[in-house]
Write a structure and sequence with these properties.
- This protein is an alpha+beta fold and 161 residues long.
- It has one domain: Immunoglobulin-like (Sandwich).
- It contains 4 helices and 9 strands.
- Strands 4-3-7-8 form a 4-stranded antiparallel sheet. Strands 5-2-9 form a 3-stranded mixed sheet, with no helix packed on it. Strands 1-6 form a two-stranded antiparallel sheet.
- The protein is globular, with a radius of gyration of 19 Å.
- The N and C termini lie far apart (57 Å).
Length: 161
């Protein structure tokens, strides 16, 4: 193969890569409030989830997730950091999506947004159904801290089996 053909092949591959270097998770802040009362929700766990493309018809895989807790006024913050998964540097990534968990509200799938300020809302409606929906996380194989925490919430007796 000629050098020119190799050069074009290399440029074609580089064009498929989202960024030429390490992927940086952005700094994000926000607040979680009750949709009905407009009151802040304290002590909720906020998960920032990045997904990758999956096989057609399957759930996308979790590339990275991290979590934090809301303060007394429902505020939360994620600092900027280098993505923990090198896969995020070279593969297509979707997100971040913001999910949250509170014992009274259950686990709520939040919006996908790349805004630097996020407002999340929860309602006590259907909280019991959301608690039952947690079971889908029991079979997750992602091993980052956020995914492990989701498994701990969803399957507290998993290790006891």
């Amino acid at each position: 193969m000629s050098r020119t053909a190799l050069g074009f092949a290399f440029l074609g591959l580089v064009g498929c890569v989202p960024s030429p270097g390490p992927f940086q998770l952005a700094e994000v802040g926000g607040q979680l409030i009750d949709r009905d009362s407009q009151e802040p929700i304290a002590d909720a766990e906020i998960f920032q989830v990045y997904l990758g493309g999956g096989a057609p018809g399957s759930d996308p895989s979790v590339y990275s997730s991290r979590w934090t807790q809301t303060d007394a006024r429902g505020h939360f913050h994620f600092a900027s950091q280098l993505a923990p998964s090198a896969r995020m540097w070279v593969l297509r990534t979707y997100g971040p999506r913001y999910d949250f968990y509170h014992p009274e509200y259950g686990l709520v799938r939040g919006p996908t947004t790349d805004d630097g300020e996020v407002t999340l809302e929860a309602s006590l409606d259907q909280a019991e159904q959301r608690r039952m929906d947690l079971q889908v996380f029991c079979n997750s194989t992602a091993d980052d801290p956020g995914s492990r925490r989701l498994r701990d919430i969803a399957c507290p007796s998993r290790d006891a089996r």
